[in-house]
Amino acid sequence: MKVKRLAFLTIILTYILIVFGGYVASSESGMGCGPEWPLCNGLMIPVLEGDTLIEFAHRIVGAVLAIMTAVLYLSIQKSNQERELGGVSKALMLLLIIQILLGAAVVWLDLPAIIVSVHLLVAMAFLALLIWIWRRAGEQTSRTKTRNDQSIRNKFKILLVLLLLTLFLGAYIKHQTFGLACSWLECAYGILPETYPEMIQTGHRLLAGILAFYIFILTYISIKSKWEAGLQNRLMAASVLVLSQIIVGVLTIISYIEISWAVLHLAFGTALFAIICEAWVFASSFGRICRQGEKSSNHYYG
After folding, report:
1. CB-facing half-sphere around the CA of 79: CA atoms within 13 A
2. Is the dihedral of CA 252, 258, 262, 267 positive or negative?
3. Would you say the pTM of this structure is higher than 0.70?
4. CA distance 185 to 160
5. Is 216 exposed, middle or buried (0-12, 13-18, 19+ CB in 10 A)?
6. Strand partners, 187
7. I need a labelling partner for 33 at 20 to 30 A (CA). Which of 13, 213, 228, 295 fits?
8. DSSP character string of 285-300
9. What crossing angle do the helices spanning 150-175 and 3-26 adopt, rounded to 10°?
């Protein structure tokens, strides 16, 4: 199987696993196998019902993902891919090992909020590397030259940092059960937060608001400044996701964190991260391709 196709399939499975993990948390099935790992209730294959079925299914999907990642790594190492791609694949395997250890720690320590939140961040970093590999695998250098704009890439880096911080706080709030510390408009004693849960919840919302505003502004700038069409399309898709995420976020609070809305909230957030990450790699490719084209051109005319 080609590296690019395998990387894409691994991205899809990673996305499914992240969203499934949100369902495990929302349904409070995280300890469905008890405080045991890799065994489940003392067995390799437990009685599959209730919370145990949900948690065990999550572990099975994770195991399949680990196998696919290992196959992807070996495929890259055996292929004639550039050295940079091989280095990223090694980083991917390192993140996989860290993620497995964090998953075990989450179970052994009975779902500590901070470790679960870091677990999600590592999953996002893992997804980002997969997207990078997918975009760069088999990349051709014969594409039309495009302006190398470092400032555009920096804007996407800022977006990614804001997204990771927002997702981290969201996960922390979820696992500390701070989700209803404030209503969708105000906190218990007014607009300004007073208690620690209210402050954390308000901080999450402020970050989300800044992120949404930044995406809307970048979308407007990309259209006005006539950025490459691919970047415009990605930013418009991100803007639509942001609007959807705001609506789902409000519905999550109004419904007192109903499972379906909470999982959809994570699904949209993860999709937004994937789009922004892919857009950053897409923007970076232009400068890389342009530099390669310039070298070829200089060699030809020299």
Report:
1. 20
2. negative
3. yes
4. 26
5. middle
6. 182, 190
7. 13
8. HHHHHHHHHHHHHHHH
9. 30
Enter the tokens of residue 197: 């849960």
Q: List, in order, residues 6 or more apart from 221 with CB less than 8 Å away.
A: 227
Please tell me the total number of residues recorded for the chain in this structure. 302
DSSP H helical segments within the chain, as ranges?
Answer: 3-26, 50-78, 83-108, 113-136, 150-175, 196-224, 229-254, 259-301
Residues whose CB is less than 8 angstroms from the CB of residue 117 and which lie 6 or more positions away in sequence, other chains included = 168, 171, 172, 175
Give the C-alpha separation, 170 to 211, whole Å.
Answer: 14
**Mind listing the pLDDT tens digit of every residue in the chain (302 residues)?**
588 999 999 999 999 999 999 999 999 999 999 999 999 999 999 999 999 999 999 999 999 999 999 999 999 988 866 677 888 999 999 999 999 999 999 999 988 999 999 999 999 999 999 999 999 887 654 444 444 467 888 899 999 999 999 999 999 999 998 888 888 777 766 677 888 998 999 999 999 999 999 999 999 999 998 888 999 999 999 999 999 999 999 999 899 889 999 999 999 999 999 999 999 998 877 544 334 433 433 332 23
Angle at the Cα of 93 (from 266 to 23), degrees rounded to 5? 20
Beta carbons within 10 angstroms of residue 2's beta carbon: 11
Query: Which residue matches tokens 């091989």?
Result: 86
